[in-house]
Write a structure and sequence with these properties.
- The protein has one domain.
- The chain is mostly helical and 69 residues long.
- The chain is built from two helices and two strands; from the N terminus they run ααββ.
- Bound molecules: zinc ion.
- Zinc ion binds next to loops.
Length: 69
């Protein structure tokens, strides 16, 4: 992926809308998988929790990877 076209805030807002529209666990899992792939979410390496781009550090203390926001 090259330079993001949308800000971290805009991408997070898009993920929030998509997750709100996903009505089944399968749909939510798909939204999360695609969002991770498109770098609209990030996954904490140590604890594997999905995080919004606007979240700078996971609850476990791990920081958001560089270049995402
Ligand atoms: Zn974590």
């Amino acid at each position: 992926m090259s330079t993001p076209l949308l800000s971290a805030k805009d991408r997070t807002a898009a993920v929030v809308v998509l997750l709100a529209q996903a009505t089944t666990p399968q749909e939510r899992a798909t939204v999360k998988r695609v969002a991770l792939q498109a770098r609209f979410l990030w996954r904490c390496a140590p604890c594997r929790k999905n995080q919004f781009l606007t979240t700078e550090a996971c609850g476990c203390g791990a920081e958001r990877p560089q270049g995402l926001a």
